[in-house]
């Protein structure tokens, strides 16, 4: 059992011995002369107290007793010495015998012994003791490429962060796509005591591209072979994980297993739990050579320093070259080559218990790895079917996975108390900005939202688009929350060009969106739509932050700044591309206005031309946008002139003007101080005017607002007086900032506001 438990038992035994041996000795020696409460006569002569034989006998007994007492005292002295040594060596004993801390970590290679060990480990009365120093950094390496793998990494990281009590250093071998996604995610996640380093996977392709690989992971599935060369030379050990891993325990327990490696053991692996390498799955099945069942490389412990000294790079290359002469390609990527090397060099492996990699693949023997939920350490979804794999307890595993999939990542931003953190400039700046705010200010929550860092996951779904070579391409930009999801398919049908969307969702809602999108033929057929998830935090809808995220991640020279509730006219994408050339948008500061209309009908026969739209206006089926509640917002578009216009015409800025415009991608961002409802677009149009943009109305373009239930934010605006007061305060502060930034020219905004 546990080494520490043995130590405690020895300590207890020694203590009892010291306390009771002298007492028992005296009792025994004294009671030995009595029987039934009376002295026992050893001989007739000894019963006579004054006889010579009695005196001699008494003398011998005293001498014998003194000798025995001295022996007992000597034994006690030795026991005390041993006890003091055990006590003084207690902490050192823990450090020097870490391999005995976790009873369930003994690598055996024998499933029966392992199962017995699990039961014994669960029934032990001695609790597990930490063997990893409190603030010791744990290093984890993950190979990640593409959009889907980036989502998987997030779930893996969540499961690790949920259980961890140590600083973490993730080494991500990523392609350009994954790096962009994950760098933004971790930068905005701001988890304390977590460091991220990226290594360019594309630069490593030449190291493994000569190996033919049939596995669905492709060339990236071979890159774990070159980690000794890729990771920093001063990094001695690392845990390597596949992206389809879920942790059910503290990763420090796995890190502690490194201390059990002996001799030339440099790889910690779990035995493969299928019959793949036994070659009996089907007729003529011919796997790569392996030791017995072989080993699964979804979880690997690498002693990098020793591997480098052993010339690992040369070792695996020679083995791969030799085996490829007959095998022609790998079937399981790096796993085949690892196993071929181990077959020739079995001394390299420390076999991990199978609960460190419970493999949920087809034909798996994973059920032999656990008897109870508490036995589970790491779950590995290593079947191409992933969550659809068949397993006796797959429902439990699936629920565990979904727990982390939908877990609020913001809750994982917890400090590791007692562990010094590396200085984070972004975090320090944020704290400084927040400390300068007055918490007694009635508008404090509004002001605070401006500095809130929202966790952001770019390109949540696969994105693939190359802008048109003629530099006229336009991206539709919009933002939405879960209650507007139904608009996506309709917009995709109306706009065939690229789209950039920022979605404000919780972690659980993000998964609902994923399922919705994957079940939609319309959305799955479009690869030119970038979905960027901004995770919920705080009480306000950060509308302008969302717009900025969507604007920032477009790949075209121009963008159409729209809203999710609007359907663009059919053919608007091509019309705007022609207008960009006609109005020389590349060389002039113009904002092209797309006139906005609305319908109060949920079912609308969408007008296919301007003539049809004008007819519907006359019939009262359509209206100019917000004419009955907010006329000033679009009145400067001059709809009367638009009815008969055949060429673009210029309009002037007026107070509260908020049209939907097409601009170059280098236009200013939206002001983040405006959240929820009110003035979020007005402020942006005002800044465009301050920067001398020319507003030009397009004569043959239009968009129609579809009806929907009032948003939560507009309800708060209408019902909460303090909300309206704070919005007015923010407007005044914005105008003052405009005056300071743009000088005399910005005074007209104050004048216009006073006259409106």
UniProtKB/TrEMBL annotation:
InterPro entries the record matches: Glyco_trans_8, Nucleotide-diphossugar_trans, Xyl/GlcA_transferase
Keywords, ordered alphabetically: Glycoprotein, Glycosyltransferase, Golgi apparatus, Membrane, Multifunctional enzyme, Signal-anchor, Transferase, Transmembrane, Transmembrane helix
Domain of life according to the entry: Eukaryota
Main location group: Golgi
Reaction(s) catalysed by this chain's protein: 3-O-{(1->[3)-alpha-D-Xyl-(1->3)-beta-D-GlcA-(1->](n)-4)-beta-D-Xyl-(1->4)-Rib-ol-P-Rib-ol-P-3-beta-D-GalNAc-(1->3)-beta-D-GlcNAc-(1->4)-O-6-P-alpha-D-Man}-L-Thr-[protein] + UDP-alpha-D-glucuronate = 3-O-{beta-D-GlcA-(1->[3)-alpha-D-Xyl-(1->3)-beta-D-GlcA-(1->](n)-4)-beta-D-Xyl-(1->4)-Rib-ol-P-Rib-ol-P-3-beta-D-GalNAc-(1->3)-beta-D-GlcNAc-(1->4)-O-6-P-alpha-D-Man}-L-Thr-[protein] + UDP + H(+); 3-O-[beta-D-GlcA-(1->3)-beta-D-Xyl-(1->4)-Rib-ol-P-Rib-ol-P-3-beta-D-GalNAc-(1->3)-beta-D-GlcNAc-(1->4)-(O-6-P-alpha-D-Man)]-Thr-[protein] + UDP-alpha-D-xylose = 3-O-[alpha-D-Xyl-(1->3)-beta-D-GlcA-(1->4)-beta-D-Xyl-(1->4)-Rib-ol-P-Rib-ol-P-3-beta-D-GalNAc-(1->3)-beta-D-GlcNAc-(1->4)-(O-6-P-alpha-D-Man)]-Thr-[protein] + UDP + H(+); 3-O-{beta-D-GlcA-(1->[3)-alpha-D-Xyl-(1->3)-beta-D-GlcA-(1->](n)-4)-beta-D-Xyl-(1->4)-Rib-ol-P-Rib-ol-P-3-beta-D-GalNAc-(1->3)-beta-D-GlcNAc-(1->4)-O-6-P-alpha-D-Man}-L-Thr-[protein] + UDP-alpha-D-xylose = 3-O-{(1->[3)-alpha-D-Xyl-(1->3)-beta-D-GlcA-(1->](n+1)-4)-beta-D-Xyl-(1->4)-Rib-ol-P-Rib-ol-P-3-beta-D-GalNAc-(1->3)-beta-D-GlcNAc-(1->4)-O-6-P-alpha-D-Man}-L-Thr-[protein] + UDP + H(+)
A GO CC annotation given for this chain: Golgi membrane
UniProt membrane topology term: Single-pass type II membrane protein
Membrane spanning residue stretches: 12-31
Metabolic or biological pathway, per its Swiss-Prot or TrEMBL entry: Protein modification; protein glycosylation
Compartments it resides in: Golgi apparatus membrane
GO biological process: protein O-linked glycosylation via mannose
Gene Ontology molecular function terms on file: glucuronosyltransferase activity; xylosyltransferase activity
Region (Disordered) residue spans: 85-110
Matches recorded under Pfam families: Glyco_transf_49, Glyco_transf_8
Similarity comment text for this entry: In the N-terminal section; belongs to the glycosyltransferase 8 family.
Protein name: LARG1 glucuronyltransferase
């Amino acid at each position: 059992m546990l080494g520490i438990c043995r130590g405690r038992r020895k300590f207890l035994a020694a203590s009892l011995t010291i306390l009771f041996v002298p007492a028992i000795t005296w009792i025994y020696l004294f009671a030995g002369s009595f029987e039934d409460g009376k002295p026992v006569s050893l001989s007739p002569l000894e019963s006579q107290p004054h006889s010579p034989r009695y005196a001699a006998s008494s003398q011998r007994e005293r001498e014998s007793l003194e000798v025995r007492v001295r022996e007992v005292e000597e034994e006690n002295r030795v026991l005390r010495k041993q006890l003091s040594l055990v006590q003084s060596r207690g902490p050192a004993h823990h450090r020097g015998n870490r391999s005995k801390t976790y009873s369930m970590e003994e690598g055996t290679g024998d499933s029966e012994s392992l199962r017995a060990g699990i039961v014994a480990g669960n029934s032990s009365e001695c609790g597990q003791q930490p063997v990893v120093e409190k603030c010791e950094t744990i290093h984890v390496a993950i190979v990640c490429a593409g959009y889907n793998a980036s989502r998987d990494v997030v779930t893996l990281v969540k499961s690790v962060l949920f259980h961890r009590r140590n600083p973490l250093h993730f080494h991500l071998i990523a392609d350009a796509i994954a790096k962009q996604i994950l760098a933004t995610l971790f930068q905005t996640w701001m988890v304390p005591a977590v460091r991220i380093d990226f290594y360019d996977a594309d630069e490593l392709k030449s190291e493994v591209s000569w190996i033919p690989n049939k596995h669905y992971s492709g060339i990236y599935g071979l890159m774990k072979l070159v980690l000794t060369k890729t990771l920093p030379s001063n990094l001695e050990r690392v845990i390597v994980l596949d992206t389809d891993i879920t942790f059910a325990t503290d990763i420090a327990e796995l890190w502690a297993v490194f201390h059990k490696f002996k001799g030339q053991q440099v790889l910690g692996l779990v035995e493969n739990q299928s019959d793949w390498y036994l070659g009996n799955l089907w007729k003529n099945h011919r796997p790569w050579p392996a030791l017995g069942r072989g080993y699964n490389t979804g979880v690997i412990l690498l002693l990098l320093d020793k591997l480098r000294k052993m010339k690992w790079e040369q070792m695996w290359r020679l083995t791969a070259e030799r085996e490829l002469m007959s095998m022609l390609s790998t079937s399981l990527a790096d796993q085949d080559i690892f196993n071929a090397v181990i077959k020739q060099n079995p001394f390299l492996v420390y076999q991990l218990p199978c609960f460190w990699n419970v493999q949920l693949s087809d034909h798996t023997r994973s059920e032999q790895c656990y008897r109870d939920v508490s036995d589970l350490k790491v779950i590995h979804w290593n079947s191409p079917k992933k969550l659809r794999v068949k397993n006796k307890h797959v429902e439990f595993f699936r629920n565990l996975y979904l727990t982390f999939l939908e877990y609020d990542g913001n809750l994982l931003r917890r400090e590791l108390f007692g562990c010094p953190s590396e200085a984070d400039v972004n975090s320090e700046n944020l704290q400084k900005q927040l400390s300068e705010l007055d918490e007694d200010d009635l508008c404090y929550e509004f002001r605070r939202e401006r500095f809130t860092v929202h966790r952001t996951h770019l390109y949540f779904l696969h994105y693939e688009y190359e802008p048109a070579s003629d530099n006229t391409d336009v991206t539709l930009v919009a933002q939405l929350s879960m209650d507007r999801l139904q608009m996506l398919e309709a917009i995709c049908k109306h706009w065939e060009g690229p789209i950039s969307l920022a979605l404000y969702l919780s972690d659980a809602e993000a998964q609902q969106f994923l399922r919705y999108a994957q079940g939609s033929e319309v959305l799955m057929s479009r690869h030119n739509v970038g979905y960027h998830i901004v995770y919920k935090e705080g009480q306000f809808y950060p509308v302008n932050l969302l717009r900025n995220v969507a604007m920032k991640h477009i790949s075209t020279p121009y963008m159409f700044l729209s809203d999710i509730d609007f359907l663009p006219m059919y053919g608007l994408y091509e019309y705007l591309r022609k207008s960009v050339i006609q109005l020389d948008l590349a060389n002039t500061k113009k904002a092209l206005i797309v006139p906005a209309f609305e319908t109060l009908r949920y079912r609308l026969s969408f007008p296919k031309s301007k003539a049809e739209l004008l007819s519907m206006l006359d019939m009262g089926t359509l209206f100019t946008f917000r004419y009955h509640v907010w006329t000033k917002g679009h009145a400067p578009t001059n709809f009367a002139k638009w009815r008969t216009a055949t060429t673009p015409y210029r309009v002037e800025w007026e107070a509260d003007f908020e049209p939907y415009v097409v601009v170059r991608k280098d236009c200013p961002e939206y002001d983040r101080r405006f959240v929820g409802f009110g003035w979020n677009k007005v402020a942006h149009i005002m800044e465009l005017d301050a920067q001398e943009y020319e507003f030009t109305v397009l004569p043959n373009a239009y968009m129609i607002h579809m009806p929907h239930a009032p948003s939560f934010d507009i309800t708060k605006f209408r019902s909460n007086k303090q909300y309206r007061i704070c919005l007015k305060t923010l407007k005044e502060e914005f105008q003052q900032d405009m005056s300071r930034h743009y000088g005399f020219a910005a005074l007209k905004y104050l004048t216009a506001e006073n006259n409106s």
